[in-house]
Write a structure and sequence with these properties.
The N terminus is likely disordered. Helix content is 67%, strand content 0%. It has 8 helices and no strands. It folds into 2 domains: 66 residues; 154 residues. The longest helix is centred in the first third of the chain and has 54 residues. The chain is mainly alpha-helical. The protein is rod-shaped.
Length: 262
């Protein structure tokens, strides 16, 4: 089973203080409309200035034109800054989208019934030995969830917030699979009076090593994603609610004769 190789190299795309509470909350299209109105007003002032004969009137018109031009320049600069920030955010989301696809693909191998070393196949191999907990575990729910999330990943997220929500959903999938399937099976096997053959235990231990290795990479990805979210959305309680689940318990040994170690 392939091991996810995670890289956390800086791409130079991040910027400080992405959410400036002192800036106007006008939307970009409102800024464009305002700038256009100011420019139109400036043109009217200039035309009126050309027709004016009094020096006082000309001075007043010139002052008005300069003030209007200053407003137009200010909002144009604000729009350009917003546009640059939006481009940077889109590039960050694009890079994180590739990482999400990689970490999801690696996870999918543990649930795919076509993969001989997946946890689903291993459970099928151990089911004839009548371990009670294995008979109780049905993986249709988590498999359907994997398929649903895989379909979502075929389409770009509508916004940065939608993307980070997608990442959180994936982290909830990992946590659910880890807690309600893998750990549940491991504890049930240790408590069961039935004894699994060595071949099944070998499969489970191989899976455990691969899966724990994946969880280490997953944790690194989740921590890095939290930093990216704070960079894009700013630090707030609302942003924290979008963070992925970071702490996922490692799997202990399936062997009864070996003290379980993470």
């Amino acid at each position: 089973m392939a091991r996810l190789i995670y890289s956390d190299e800086s791409d130079g795309l991040f910027f400080d203080n992405p959410v400036d509470s002192h800036r106007s909350k006008l939307e970009p299209h409102h800024i464009v409309q305002l700038a256009s109105a100011v420019l139109n007003a400036t043109v009217v002032v200039i035309i009126s200035l050309q027709k004016a004969t009094s020096l006082v009137v000309k001075v007043i018109f010139w002052m008005a034109a300069i003030m209007l031009l200053g407003v137009a320049i200010r909002y144009t600069i604000r729009f350009v800054r917003w546009l640059i920030a939006r481009i940077r955010i889109n590039r960050i989301v694009a890079a994180e989208t590739e990482k999400l696809a990689a970490v999801f693909k690696a996870f999918e191998l543990f649930t795919d019934e076509r993969q001989g070393e997946s946890f689903r196949v291993i459970l099928k191999n151990t089911s004839p030995y009548r371990v009670e907990v294995i008979d109780q575990i049905q993986m249709d729910y988590v498999t359907d969830w994997v398929v649903s999330l895989k379909e979502q990943l075929n389409y770009p997220a509508a916004s940065p917030v939608a993307f980070f929500l997608r990442c959180r959903e994936f982290s909830l999938l990992v946590r659910d699979f880890n807690t309600n399937y893998v750990i549940r099976a491991q504890k049930g096997i240790l408590k069961s009076s039935a004894q699994l053959p060595e071949s099944c235990l070998e499969q489970l231990e191989t899976f455990r090593e691969e899966y724990n290795s994946y969880l280490r990479d997953y944790t690194q990805w989740a921590k890095s994603l939290c930093d990216r979210e704070k960079t894009v959305l700013g630090e707030s309680q609302q942003t924290a609610m979008l963070f992925p689940c970071i702490l996922v318990e490692r799997i202990k040994s399936f062997r009864k004769t070996v003290e379980a170690n993470a």
